[in-house]
Amino acid sequence: MKRYASARVDHLQIAIPAGGEEAARAFYGALLALREVPKPPDLRARGGLWFRSGSVALHLGIDPDFRPATKAHVALASAEYEALIARLRAAAVAIRADELPFEGRAHCYVADPFGNRIELIDDAPRAATVDKTGEATIVAVSTPPGHGAIAIVRTSGADARAIAAKLTDGAALAPRHATRVALVDEAGRPLDDALALYFPAPHSATGDDVVEFHLHGSPVLARELLRAAIACGARQAEAGEFTRRAFLAGKLDLDGVGAVGDLIAAETASAARAALANLGGALQARVKALRASLRGPLERLAASIDFPDEVEEPARAPLAEALDELQRELAQLQRDGEVGRLLREGVSLAIVGPPNAGKSSLLNGLLGEQRAIVSELPGTTRDSIEERFVVDGVAVRAVDTAGIRAHADRLEAMGIERSHRAFESARILLLVLDASTPLSEQAEALLARSEGRDRIVFFNKADLGTSAVRAVAGISVVGSTFLPQTLDELRAAIARVGWGSERPDLERAHLAFGGEFDAIARALEALASARSAIAAGEPLDLVGNDLRLVDAALARLSHAEASEEMLESIFARFCIGK
Amino acid sequence: MEAMRSDDAGVIVVGGGHAGVEAAHAAAKIGVPTLLLTGDPERICTLPCNPSIGGSAKGQIVREIDALGGAMGVLADSCSLHARFLNESKGPAVRALRQLMDKPSYNRAALRLLRSLPALQIEAAMVEALIVVAGEMRGVRCADGRAFYARRVVLATGTFLGGKLFRGEDVQPGGRHAEAPSIGLSHALREIGFSMQRLKTGTPPRVARTSVDYAAMRVQEPSAMPLLFSRRSEARFVGPQLPCYLLDTNERTHALVRENLHRSPLYGLDLIRGIGPRYCPSIEDKVVKFAHNPTHQLFIEPEGWEEPTLYVGGFSTSLPAEVQVAMLQTLPGMERCEMLRAGYAVEYDMVAPTELDDTLQTRRITGLYHCGQLNGTSGYEEAAAQGLLAGANAALAARGREALRIARSEGYIGVLVDDLVGKGVDEPYRMMTSRAEHRVLLRHDNADRRLTPQGRAIGLVDDDQWTGFSEEIALLDRALLDVERQRLPVREIGEERFQGAPTLAEALRRPQIHIEDLRRWLPEGFAPELSERLEIEIKLEGYVKREEQAVTQAARRERLLIPLDFAYDRVGALSTEAREKLQRQRPRTLGAAARIPGVAPADVAILSLHLQRREEPSARAAR
C-alpha cells in the first residue's frame, strides 16, 4: 500500500574547506558535469558553490573546521556512466570499484579533491527492467537425457545460493569459478563429487543468481540431484523457463534466439505428443471430471455474488462435503501420478553384493547383451552403471554397483561410496551372494542391512555348490546367471517385489510432467485453505477465492481458461437477470 | 503536420448518455476545451432502462470512477431514493453498493454539473459523418450540414447507431423510446473499415404506481443509514427513502408468453439478428430456455419520488403491447395495473472493441475514441467508466501527455478495458466479480487508494478531493499501526477466547470478531466511518498479500511491451492460430498477448524471445 511523505528532499550539502571553490568547480562542474547555479546574493558572502541536477540541488558549503566525509556520501546516478568513468580516469582520479552491484547496477566510489566520498551509479537505461521479487527459484537438468560424459544441473533464482549451500554442505563458492564440491542430498547423504559454478546476479545467464553443478554423466545422479534441489525449495523449471528468464532479464544473445524459440516449440510439441501417446487422453478426461465436480460449488458461489437477489448463497455443510470429496479425488490423482512416474521412469533396482559374486554377469544376463566389463579380478567394476531392461512392460533401471569391499584404492573409493548411495535409494535391492562358498562377513552384513527392504536374495553359482544357501526373509532365488530359467525366475521376482506382479494399467490417467505435479500440489494446497476457511466461518467469497485457485491449477492441467468457461456455464444453469 | 485550426474545439464528445457525459466531464475538468454534441441537451443521462446504479462489481466501478475524480458517484448520491449494500455477508471484497435513482433529478444534476465546467460547451446536434484526413481525426459533420472541428473525437453513441426498436410486429427505427437513430454515422464507421457487429438489448414495461397493490408483494426495505458512493457527498438522505417490492411470475404468465411466441420478434417472427445478453434475458427467453422453472422473480422499483411509473425488473419483453398488458395482469398485486409504457427490444450496431488500443483510441484513426455501448458493453456503470477513460485520454493526448491506463490488478475498469480490447465481445458485456482474477484487491473500500493518485496525476482529482483523500488515508494508516501495536486487555470477547494478550489486529483476524467488538479500545478520535475500512484491511491482509504476490509475478509480462509494428509473420515458431490472433489484435504487452484465447504458453515463450529482435524482423519484412 502506498504511503505519502509530507516533505520532499530539497538539497544535499557537502562540506569543503575554505578557499576550495576553484578545485570544487573543476571536479563537480567539469568532471562530474553538474550544472552550477548562482548562489542567491544574500548567501554569496559565505562562500561555497551550488550545483543542480534535475530536481535535487547539491550545495557545497565552506566548513572552517573541515574534515572529509569518508562514509556519509552523495550518490550520483548517471546515464553516461562509462563516459564519466573515462573522464575521471583521464583526470587521474582514483576509482574504487565495487564488484557487488547496487540494485543490479554497476557502481563505484571516488573522492572529491578534499577527500569527500562520492558514489557513482550506472543509470543507463536497461533493455528490460524486471522485478525480481516473488519469482520462484527454478532447477532443471540442462544436458540432454541419456549418457554423456557430464550432466549439468542448473538452478536460478533468489534462493539458488542457499540451495547450493545445502547441497554442497556449505562449501564456499567463488563467483565465476569452478569449485570442487562433495554433493549431498537434502538429508546430507553423499551424492557425487562434482564441480559447482556460481554466477551472482546480475552477471549470469538469467540475470538471477545461478548455480551450475557439473556431475558425472549419470542420469540417475542428475535426477537425484534435481530431486534433492526440489526438496530444498526449488521448483522444477518449465520448458524454456531459463530462456524466458534470460530474455526477460535482457541477457540473451539475440542471434541465437530464433533457434532457441524453435527448440522450445519442438520440445513442447513433442511433450504434448508424448503426453497424448502416453495417456490416450485419460488424464484430460479425469481432470475434466474433477473440474466438473468443482464447478457446481464454484458457480453457485459466483452466481450468488454477481446476482445476489436471484441466486441463494450455497450452504456450507454440503460445500464442505463436496470439497472433501474433491480432495480425495485429487489425492488419488497424485498417487496415480506416482504410478505414472513409475511407468515412465521405471523402477530402480540396485544389484549389490560382495566382490566377484557375479553382479555384472547377472546384469548382462538380464540385459541379454554384454554391457559391463566382466573380469576375474575383484573390483573391476569401478563405477555404478545404470542399465534399463523391460519386465512386463515396466522399465527396470538397474544399477550394477561396484563390489563393496573393505580395502579399496583411492580411485575405487568414490565408486564404492556411490554403491552405498544406490543401495540406499533404490526401490528394489537385488542381493547377489556366492552360493558355493560360506558367506563372508561382508555378505552377512549386506543381508542384515537389507532386512526389511524390498529385496531379492539371489544365491548365484549354485552349479558350483550350495553350501551357503539358507532360508532368508523375502524372496530368494537359487541358480546361476547363465541359466535362462534362473533369469526368468529373477524377472518374476522383480515383478513381484516391484509392482506385485500385477501388470500396471497403462490406460489409466497419469500425470506426465513436473508442471503437472506442481499443479496438483497447488490445487491441493488451495483446497486445504478453502476447507479451513469454511471451518473457521470465513465469508464465502474468501472460500471462493481459494476455489478459484484450485480451478486455475486444474485448468493448467487441462489447458483451458477458467473464468470464461465458468461464466458460460453459469448462464446455462441459472436463470438470471432483471 | 497541419497547423491547428483556430476553430479546433480540443475534444468533441458525441453522445449524452453516461459514457458521453463522463467523457465530456473528464476532458473539460482536465482543462481542455470540450464540445459535447447530443441530440437534445435537455435529455442527457435520462437512465432509459432500469433506475439503479451500482450493484455487484458495478458498485465497485462507480467507486473507481469517483476515486479518479469522475462524475457518476457524486451524481448518484445526489438522487438516491433507495440504497442497500449487496453481498454483505459474503465477504468484504464483493460487498457492493446499489442505489435507485430519482431519474428526473439525475438528468438535472448531470446537466448542472456539466454546465458548471468552464471548458465545456454543449450543442444540440445529430452527428452524421466524421472528418478524417490521412488517418487522423479532424472533426465531425452534422445532419443539418454544420461541421465542428477537433483532432480528438470521442464517440459515445449508445444504442443509436443503426438503432431499431421491436415490439411484436411493430418495427421502428429508433435509438431508444421516442428518439431517432443515427444511420449516417454507422455507415461512416463501416466505410472507414471498422469491423461492426449487431447486438440486441431490451427494456421491460412500466406500470402506473397508483394501479398496483403492494400488499400482495414482498417488500425490500432500503438501508436506514445513508449509503454513498462518494466521500465527496454529504452523508445524509437527499429525499425520502422508498422500498422496492418482489413478486413471482406464475403459470398463467408463462402460458401467455408461450401462446404469443409466434408474435415475438425474437422467436416466431424471427426479426432480430443481434445477440442479446444472457444475464439480462427477456421474459420470453426465461420461459423458453428455463421451462422447468415454475416461477421467475420480478422486481418492482420506483423510477423517482414523483414519477408516475414503476419499473418491472426481470420482465424485459418485445411482445406486442396488448400481450404485455395481459401478462402484467397475471401478476399478484398487478391484476388491475395500468401499463404506461410498453417494453421493447432494441437492436443496434457496435464496433468491435478489438479495433481499440488500451486507451480506447481506435487503431485505424488517430484521435478517434470509442466508449460505452458502441464498444458492446451494457450497463450505465460500464459505459461511464469507459467514458471517463476515453474522455481523459482524448484530453491528455490533446495536451501531449501520457495516457491514463489502468491495470487489471488496479481496478475493474482495467479488467473491463483489457477484456474488451483483448478478447472482443460476442454479447453485450457486463462486469461481474468473476471476471476479475484479482478481486480481493479490487474492493469498494479501497478504490481511492488504488486510483486517486492516478486521478490526481492527470488533473482529474481536484484539490478538495485530494485533501480529503490524503487526510483519510493518513488517519487510516495511523489506526492500522495502532491496532497492530495495542494489546487486548481482556481474555475473551463473546464466544472467542484468547491465550496471552493478542494485539487488537490479531483479535480482529478471527472471523467471529468485528471492529464493533473492539470499539472501546480503539484510539480516541478514530472516525467511526473509517472502521469498516480498517476491519477489511486487517481481516484480508493474508489474502491481499497472496494476491499481490501473484500480481508481482505477472508484472514482468505486463511490463514487456510489444511494438505496434512487430512482425508476427516472421516468427516461424508461432502456431498459425496464435499468429493470426496476434496479428489481428496487436496486444500492447506480453501479458495481454498471453490472455488472448488461442495463444498457448509456448507461443508466449517464443514471442517473448523474439521481442527484442523487433528491428530485425520488421526490417526484413520491409525489404
Structure explained in plain terms:
The complex is a heterodimer of chains A (578) and B (623). Chain A contains 16 helices and 20 strands. Chain A is α/β, with parallel strands linked by helices and 578 residues long. Chain A folds into 4 domains: 112 residues, 2,3-Dihydroxybiphenyl 1,2-Dioxygenase, domain 1 (Roll), CATH 3.10.180.10; 116 residues, Gyrase A, domain 2 (2-Layer Sandwich); 123 residues, tRNA modification GTPase MnmE domain 2 (Four Helix Bundle (Hemerythrin (Met), subunit A)), CATH 1.20.120.430; 154 residues, 3-Layer(aba) Sandwich (Rossmann fold), CATH 3.40.50.300. Chain A has a 6-stranded mixed sheet with strand order 11-12-13-10-9-14. Chain A has a 6-stranded mixed sheet with strand order 16-17-15-18-19-20, sandwiched between helices. In chain A, a hairpin with an 8-residue loop joins β9 and β10. The longest helix of chain A has 30 residues. Chain A is flat and about 110 Å long. The two termini of chain A are 38 Å apart. About 12% of the residues of chain A have low confidence. Chain B is an alpha+beta fold and 623 residues long. Chain B folds into 4 domains: 215 residues, 3-Layer(bba) Sandwich (FAD/NAD(P)-binding domain); 141 residues, Elongation Factor Tu (Ef-tu), domain 3, CATH 2.40.30.260; 63 residues, no CATH class; 63 residues, GidA associated domain, C-terminal subdomain (DNA polymerase, domain 1, Orthogonal Bundle). Chain B has 20 helices and 23 strands. Chain B has a 6-stranded antiparallel sheet with strand order 15-16-17-18-14-19, with helices on one face. The two termini of chain B are 27 Å apart. Classes of the chains: A alpha/beta (578), B alpha+beta (623). At the A-B interface, α6, α7, α8, α15 and α16 of A face α12, α16 and α19 of B.
